[in-house]
Amino acid sequence: MITVIGIFANPALAEQAADYLLANEFENENIDRHTNDPTRAESDRVGNLFSHLYENQDEADHYASLARFGTIISVHAASTREAQEAVDALNNHGAISVDANDTRSLLIEKIIVPELRLRG
């Protein structure tokens, strides 16, 4: 399983990206959507996710800090081809740049354990 993560400043663009994926043969159970809500008291689910994905804590903290202020779309792809299609879709729908190399969607070859998935 390959995880693709796109972070969006605009929640409407994130929803458009998710809708596009659903209309193009991606399954709903393989797409997670999460918008941080600062008014809700919840544990740092975003920080936990990125700490799980990255061994380097500075790198995990960097991505988590960006994601806390946006909407996250995570796609759990079964193949490299499907993962690349997800990257293209998220980038084409407005995923933000997350580093100095203008990387927008993150492609991570790691399975996210179910309890860390950002659904809702």
Automatic annotation (TrEMBL):
**Could you identify this protein by its name?**
Uncharacterized protein
